[in-house]
Design a protein that fits this description.
Strand content of chain C: 15-25%
Largest sheet of chain C: 7 strands, mixed
Largest sheet of chain B: 2 strands, antiparallel
Helix content of chain C: 25-40%
Strand content of chain B: under 5%
Number of helices of chain C: 13
Order of helices and strands of chain B: HHHHHEEHHHHHHHH
Structural class of chain B: mainly alpha
Shape of chain C: elongated
Number of domains of chain C: 2
CATH topology of the largest domain in chain C: Rossmann fold
CATH class of the largest domain in chain C: Alpha Beta
Distance between the termini of chain B: 35 Å
CATH class of chain B: Mainly Alpha
Radius of gyration of chain C: 24 Å
Number of strands of chain B: 2
Strand order of the largest sheet of chain C: 8-7-9-10-11-18-19
Radius of gyration of chain B: 19 Å
CATH topology of chain B: ABC transporter involved in vitamin B12 uptake, BtuC
Oligomer: heterotrimer
CATH architecture of the largest domain in chain C: 3-Layer(aba) Sandwich
Number of strands of chain C: 19
Strand order of the largest sheet of chain B: 1-2
Number of domains of chain B: 1
Largest interface: A-C, 65 and 59 residues
Chain lengths: 323, 291, 437
């Protein structure tokens, strides 16, 4: 069962340290590290957003790349058709993602469990194909290229990404510590019982979907501005975006607040670290790790923290007397 | 008129091959109630077995299939017993962990194959593959036709197996109601293992039929996995007749979509059908056919 | 609550570890290490000359990335220059898996962590775009290898050089004269155009369409298609129904093979089937399509038969020699992608040598200046990096224009048939019908 974590008053200390670290240290780090941190922030945002709908509300979606892609294309299309800077996409993208997300939710929320997951997967693929083919309106396979605003300076991108990640975590935190949070979890645990108790499940699922789509779209808009190149293959990508989002959350711990944060960070580090170290078999190692994690720590690192502690404790010999 | 006929015939033939690929998945889904997203990757492994046999011994894939199927049966058995079943038993926050595990397994298998064989395209092109029959302005490729016939044979054999043999009936029983089957003396765990292995072997057969008309490489399975679960949902979980009709329907729909709408939107046809069925026909064609 | 604390602690540890323990925590842009005594006002770098190579060595596009890397290695071995001015040349190879985001990460790592002086890379256009943008921002000279998207050199990146790559819209340059002088007089009035639907196909089609329209040729069929499809008969049937005189196709390898096979099965007889490089020029096309490759025309920008030759670093080279060396070492044939890789090293080496010959220290600025002056004969022909505008309205920077040809498969071998000056055999036009072969 997921515990709704209530932050005890005295643990403001650690988050404060963390806050200082992520805000103050990066200017002193190299460009490559900053690049990794920006990616980390994006993935944390995506993982947190997915977790709201999937981990807390139980609607596992295999097609969140739809919202990511729409968020990215929000800015991209503005640039493509009207020459407007993709920074306006930071507003247009998430809004577009939510606008499209609402009908998707209304139609798909009557499906349960794996059917919902697959329906979203199908939608993700459909969007990819449509965006690839409909050249006149959506730019087609050539994608959208934009020029980068701050050239070699990465810090502005980093702080923006950081702010967005922090905002997404905050929103999820507030939602989960409110009436909405209880309703979401009850929908996840037993949707029929929730209905029987009078909770309008579709409406509350929608309340989970909207922030989820919004923040995923926002991450997409950040991608558009930072990477400065999008095409349907990259942003509406099933294995690269949708699945990875889920794996990042699973690694960290679905249904927890810190799980997606940890998962997102680990995901980026692992990917880059393994790739740099090992090269060709990096993807394989990542998949093996994912398999092992799902098999042995199905609730993720945070979720199964108790299990991890127990594993370590077992190794300690029993105390006899003092130190 | 010839265009219509050509489109229809190619659609049906392709559909038969889709059906055999999907039938394994629908069996597995019926018994385990999870979507096996490793199905595509396992089909690809079957194709590679045939490629290896073709390259070293010159065996045509239809013969290589006879080796690939037992191989994949074994691999499927091991996967199910030591990996997937583990996750099945554990209570987790997200019941979809199993689905994710199959996906991660599938991607992992793909990478292993890529490591061994590289990403190069492998072909088993024989003079037989080029043979063609001409009738009324339409051309029918011999390889397609033979693939289709073999697929029909398999479907028929599977149907007989499921309905006429004890083992087969145990499979159906486990699919319909696991607990009741256990009370009746069916070892549900064993049957699940068996079904998974059987489904995987059928995937290998499908791959072997696809190989002569196509080619293979580690990522070949992505579109076929999608088609497989589209057909599974379309036909109704666990129904062989459903899988067959779903496969044929998908094949024809795709063919017509490619001809009369646009070749680029070919896969969207399947996805749209999928979404429509999910939303408006939840039991799949099985409900309509009445089996 | 304990769980929160531990979670925070973990996250903190992860971030801290990431921040400080990852390799190469070098702050910002590192100036080359200064020597004790200042030599005039210039800083003389010491240490190896590092060349970064950013290619897709694994993943679906691995074949081409590997071909590029192998060709660069062959070139390096051939010219044997292992050090310049006492500084050894080292390669730092990164694999971007064909993913544009990873390509950008790799570029960042090569610059920020490995401190390379020059980067060569880019097979797919998507990766080329992100790599070029990153290199330009980071102020490191980047030499493109294959990426054919026109836009990459239209952006005005001063640090990005086209090298031996050909912009997609120019692959067909030689074809147009062939169309004017042979095909149109030969009766071609209607053309069916189909192209695979990703960037490669669509950009090429955008370049081809105006060419056909300008010549008054009617496009009776014009459609993208999914290169991963199994069955092209529906599309080919429609093409057949439209009754074209010529087919123009832009495809990758596997779809090229299937199209050639299935067109033969459908008896889709046309006066000429012209494929735009890509899959049609690859040696594996023969494996996939068998005898159906015969009589297929291709636009090409390289052929093992092209008689390019020259001398770099005192070592004479010929194009044919590269081809033979590749076949001998890797038991496979290279195609123009590999030649572009070979030429890339030729261009880079030439630039490095010129910098050294001028007595300047080898660093990013001097390499960039040298590349701007490049005018070198390579395995792809004469390569220059200049600024110019073509007749389609593309304004390029640092872009040259390698020669293109039209080739034709005859007797399962590719022959150069146009321009007539460089031909290896006569073209066959109109091509015989399938029934008569």
């Amino acid at each position: 069962m997921a515990e709704i974590k209530i932050m005890a008053k005295k643990s403001w200390f650690l988050p404060a340290i963390l806050g200082i670290v992520v805000v103050a240290i990066p200017p002193f780090l190299g460009g490559y590290i900053q690049h990794l941190l920006i990616l980390m922030m994006m993935w944390i945002t995506m993982a947190t957003a997915w977790n709201l709908l999937g981990g807390y509300t139980g609607c596992v979606s295999f097609g969140h790349c739809v919202f990511f892609g729409l968020g990215a294309y929000g800015g991209g299309l503005l640039l493509l058709h009207w020459g407007i800077s993709p920074w306006w996409g930071m507003i247009a993208g998430p809004i577009l993602a939510v606008i499209i997300g609402i009908p998707i939710g209304l139609i798909c929320f009557r499906l349960r469990g794996p059917y919902f997951a697959l329906a979203l997967l199908a939608l993700g693929e459909a969007f990819r194909i449509v965006f690839t083919n409909w050249v006149s309106v959506l730019g087609g396979a050539c994608g959208v290229v934009s020029s980068r605003t701050w050239g070699v300076e990465k810090l502005p991108y980093y702080y923006i990404a950081l702010a967005i990640a922090a905002l997404s975590v905050y929103v999820v935190y507030r939602l989960m510590h409110s009436k909405y949070g209880y309703y979401f979890v009850s929908i996840r645990e037993d949707q029929d019982a929730a209905e029987a108790l009078g909770i309008p499940t579709t409406r509350y699922k929608m309340y989970a979907l909207i922030p989820s789509a919004f923040f995923t779209g926002l991450a997409g808009a950040v991608w558009m501005n930072y990477i400065a190149y999008i095409d349907p293959e990259v942003v509406f990508n099933l294995s690269g975006i949708s699945i990875m989002m889920i794996l990042a959350v699973m690694v960290g711990g679905a249904g927890t607040l810190w799980g997606p944060i940890l998962g997102g960070a680990i995901f980026v580090l692992l990917n880059e670290g393994i790739r740099a170290a090992v090269g060709p078999i990096s993807y394989l190692i990542f998949m093996v790790i994912a398999c092992l994690l799902i098999m042995f720590l199905p609730d993720g690192i945070i979720g199964d923290w108790a299990k991890i502690k127990r594993a370590f404790r077992r190794k300690k010999p029993a105390y006899v007397g003092g130190e | 008129m010839a265009l219509f006929g050509q489109t229809f015939i190619t659609g049906i033939l392709m559909g038969g091959i889709y059906a055999i690929i999907a039938i394994g998945m629908t069996l597995i889904m019926g018994v385990m109630k999870i979507i096996n997203l490793a199905h595509g990757a396992l089909m690809m492994v079957g194709m590679y077995v045939c490629v290896v046999l073709f390259a070293s011994l010159g065996w045509h894939p239809y013969i290589g299939m006879l080796v690939a199927m037992p191989c994949l049966f074994g691999i499927g058995w091991l996967l199910q017993k030591y990996s997937i079943e583990r996750v099945f038993k554990v209570e987790t926050i997200l019941p979809e962990s199993q689905v994710l595990l199959t996906l991660a397994l599938g991607l992992g298998i793909t990478e292993i194959i890529r490591l061994i064989f590289t990403s190069d395209y492998q072909v088993t092109y024989t003079p037989f593959s080029a043979k063609c029959f001409y009738a009324g302005g339409m051309s029918i490729s011999a390889a397609y036709l033979v693939g289709f016939i073999l697929a029909m044979v398999f479907v028929a054999a599977l149907h007989i197996f499921l309905t006429r043999t004890d083992l087969g009936r145990s499979v159906i029983a486990t699919a319909q109601d696991r607990d009741a089957a256990t009370y009746m003396g069916v070892n549900a765990g064993r049957i699940t293992n068996f079904t998974f292995a059987l489904g995987t072997a059928l995937a290998a057969a499908g791959g072997a039929m696809l190989l002569p008309i196509f080619y293979t490489f580690p990522d070949v399975w992505h579109p076929y996995l999608a088609k497989a679960f589209i057909i599974t949902i379309l036909g109704g979980m666990g129904s062989t007749v459903g899988a067959l009709s779903g496969g044929l329907l998908l094949g024809v729909a795709e063919s017509f979509g490619a001809t009369y709408w646009s070749p680029g939107y070919r896969d969207v046809v399947g996805l749209i059908i999928f979404l429509l069925v999910l939303l408006f026909l939840p039991g799949g064609l099985k409900k309509v056919i009445g089996r | 609550m304990k769980k929160v604390k531990l979670g925070l602690f973990l996250a903190l540890t992860v971030v801290l570890v990431a921040a400080f323990a990852l390799p190469g925590c070098a702050p910002g842009e590192v100036a080359p290490p200064e020597e004790e005594e200042e030599e005039e006002e210039e800083v003389v770098p010491t240490g190896p000359i590092k060349i970064g190579i950013n290619l897709s060595l694994t993943g679906p596009k691995a074949k081409f990335g590997s071909m590029d890397r192998n060709s660069i290695e062959i070139a390096r071995a051939k010219f044997g220059v292992e050090e310049i001015g006492g500084r050894p040349i080292t390669f730092v190879i990164e694999d971007n898996r064909g993913d544009p985001a990873i390509a950008k990460s790799a570029e960042e790592k090569l610059v920020g962590v490995d401190n390379v002086d020059l980067i060569m890379g880019g097979y797919s256009s998507a990766c080329g775009v992100t790599q070029a943008a990153a290199a330009n921002d980071l102020k490191v000279p980047h030499l493109l290898v294959n990426s054919s998207k026109d836009a990459i050199t239209e952006e005005g990146y001063e640090w990005v050089f086209s090298g031996a790559r050909v912009p997609a819209s120019h692959y067909a340059d030689a074809m147009w004269s062939f169309v004017d002088e042979v095909l149109i007089p030969g009766g071609v009035k209607k053309v069916a155009l189909y192209y695979e639907m990703t960037d490669w196909g669509t950009s090429s089609a955008e370049g081809l369409r105006p060419g056909f329209e300008k010549r008054g040729i009617e496009l009776v069929y014009d459609s993208p298609y999914d290169s991963t499809a199994t069955d092209f008969k529906p599309m080919l049937s429609k093409v057949k129904a439209a009754n074209p005189d010529m087919i123009m196709a832009v495809s990758y390898l596997t779809d090229a093979g299937l199209l050639a096979r299935q067109a033969a099965e459908l008896r889709l007889n046309v006066l000429a089937y012209m494929g735009q490089a890509g899959g049609y020029t690859m040696p594996e096309f023969l494996e996939l399509a068998g005898e159906n490759v015969n009589y297929v025309f291709t636009t090409a920008n390289w052929s093992p038969l092209a008689a390019w030759e020259g001398e770099i670093a005192g070592v004479k080279w010929t194009n044919q020699e590269y081809y033979d060396a590749y076949v001998a070492s890797y038991k496979a044939e290279p195609d123009y992608h590999g030649a572009q890789g070979y030429a890339a090293w030729q261009i880079a080496l030439d630039a490095l040598l010129r910098v050294d010959a001028a007595g300047k220290p080898i660093n990013r600025e001097t390499i960039k200046a040298a590349l701007e002056e490049t005018k070198l004969m390579t395995a792809m022909g004469l390569i220059e990096n200049k600024e110019w505008t073509d007749d389609m309205g593309h304004h390029y920077y640092n872009q040259g224009l390698p020669l293109t040809y039209v080739m034709q498969w005859q007797n399962e071998v590719q022959e150069v048939v146009w321009p007539l000056a460089g031909k290896s055999t006569d073209y066959v036009f109109p091509v015989p019908k399938y029934e008569e072969r």
